[in-house]
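Sorry to interrupt, but I need a hand with the structure work. It will help me judge whether the discrete encoding reads sensibly. Write everything out right here, beneath this request:
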Amino acid sequence: MIWVTNKNIFSSQPRPEHPYFASAYDFIASWLGGQDSFVLHTSGSTGIPKPISVTRKQLSSSAAMTGKALELGEGTKALVCLNVAYIAGLMMLVRGMELDWKLTIVEPSANPLSDRGLDDNFDFIALVPMQLFEILSNEKTKEKVDNFNKILLGGAPVSVALERKVAGLNAAVYQSYGMTETVSHVALRRMNGCEGEGNGYTMLPGVDFGVDERGCLYVSGPMTEGEIIQTNDLVEITSPNTFSWLGRADNVINSGGVKIILDKVDAAIAEVLFRLNQLNPFFSWFEADEKLGQKLILVVEGTLYGITGETLLMEIRKQFSAYETPKHVYFADHFIKTATDKVDKRRTVQALFNLPNG
């Protein structure tokens, strides 16, 4: 099913019978009706999912900042294919109503362009990396991507394989930085084209930011109504308006007195796996060790093709220090995911080692 709407024709449209489209309809109705506060839910990727109350002003401010940063004004044709029950999808509805966009809404799926009845031309689309990877891996849909003007990626890390695919696209692709607490993204990184060099994120207009004593980012602005939101993201400020993301402070382990940023390890291992043509999902983690305290390990989903875990470790050792080289590779049949399809690393390891969940 495909539902096309905008703020001008919405009032003449009947409420869809399909539950998913009905939920989108109900939110738009409440928005156009002037509702002033809304309850959002965090994804649960870095902790227990929790409800967050936000105001209409916060949501509209976020929409305005995105429209200004990406030059998406009145009449923008946008494809809504993220779950509207969460902030990324819901904000597409808010932008549509606030900025007077034409919204084409489809149910979330791995490849939202596979619907034969879908118009191929859109000015803007927001996706999770898995969706863009599936689109570009499908012979019938990969050619449609260059019909888009701007693509926004968020919600999960971007793999090396996807980075390589994105580099050759004509459409402008942006990776977002944000969270439910900041009411969607507050910074963008251009991934391709002449502006796509480097790993720096540029703050949206009107966002103030800095770092605390740990080197972790904090932000404030209209989307938080001036409240400072402190994150656990370790960053390096590279200019008055840009920063580079290093990893999460809660993804740092102490192994034999050496602090290891797991996200940094993941980025380097991703390059090794890509060079070896291994596309398995993976993450680095730790297990208790009498000598080191915390021992670095690597967890891979499925099985490697044509190489062993020891061969992989040998390749990793070529570019890592002894401390940053995983001491062991574990294989899990399937990673446990959150409600928003992010890997729940802690629960995956608990299940792998048959540890109590807590």
User: Anything to note?
Assistant: The longest strand covers residues 229-239. The longest helix spans residues 56-70.
